[in-house]
Design brief:
The chain is α/β, with parallel strands linked by helices. 46% of the residues lie in helices and 17% in strands. The chain has one domain: Glycerol-3-phosphate (1)-acyltransferase, CATH 3.40.1130. β4, α5 and β5 form a beta-alpha-beta unit. This is Putative acyltransferase.
């Protein structure tokens, strides 16, 4: 069995970590510019969204490798996600590493995207890239409008595609998971989709809130069984039941061995 404390163990000797991060400092900005500007020239080409999404996924994997960070997910969980359909993905949020590790571990057979706050779309360059990658623009100043946007976006998605939501709303620093907002449950109820919970373990040990340079180590992602809303229960009861299922895995601190 593996505990979250194991995440703090460095993967590479100091000399290798130093060499990798030197390469990241020297070549990283160039790579970022290529990815950022690609939508400006290629966004109108047929099949661009799929091609660009795969490019971003590979970039996330390379970034983690250069940081000597390994994102781990069992083969059984990968197989589960590769055939997952008609779902909304819900994950806990502990660190800026969370999105990168999710991009790295989720198999290519599973299509997904993120909901991003409207303010991030205000920068023209980011807006072009976000739209090209299929991200959903959410205006969090109006809860009603945000919910309507999310609901309509999910309804129009292919069953193979899922939106990823952080139910805590922001990175949490508490010992356990933070309180969950109801957005994912409301969207699932409105669209008839199930919820696919994923628990991230160890990311905050490597890059806590307030720090900018991550440590080397491992992050584990555990895929939980599909969660189905109970239309005979209240929204709050469904939210509490979803959180309890994820808390049980997170608080345990022990995750199944990789098989």
């Amino acid at each position: 069995m593996q505990t979250r404390d194991a995440a703090q163990a460095a993967l590479d000797p100091f000399a290798i970590r130093f060499a990798k991060r030197t390469v990241l400092i020297l070549l990283g900005p160039i790579y970022f510019v290529i990815i950022a500007f690609a939508p400006l020239f290629c966004a109108k080409r047929q099949g661009f969204t799929g091609w660009y999404w795969r490019l971003v996924k590979r970039a996330c994997s390379r970034l983690l490798w250069l940081l000597s960070i390994r994102a781990k997910m069992s083969e059984a969980d990968r197989r589960t996600l590769s055939t997952d359909t008609n779902s909304i993905i819900v994950i806990n949020h502990r660190s800026h590493l969370d999105g990168f590790t999710l991009m790295d571990t989720v198999p290519d057979q599973k299509w997904f995207t993120f909901a991003a706050k409207k303010e991030l779309f205000d920068t023209p360059l980011l807006r072009t890239g976000f739209i090209g990658a299929g991200l959903i623009e959410i205006d969090r100043k109006s809860g009603k409008r945000a919910m309507e946007t999310l609901r309509e976006a999910v309804k129009q998605m292919a069953s193979r595609r899922s939106v990823v939501l952080f139910p805590e709303g922001t990175r949490t620093q508490t010992a356990s998971l933070g309180e969950f907002k109801a957005g994912a449950v409301l969207a699932a109820r409105a669209t008839g989709r199930s919820i696919r919970p994923i628990v991230i373990l160890g990311s905050d040990r490597l890059l806590p809130r307030g720090q900018f340079v991550p440590k080397s180590g491992c992050v584990r992602l555990v895929v939980l069984p599909s969660f189905h809303c109970d239309m005979g229960a209240s929204v709050d009861e469904d939210v509490a039941r979803l959180r309890d299922a994820m808390v049980q895995v997170f608080n345990d601190g022990h995750v199944p061995p990789l098989t």
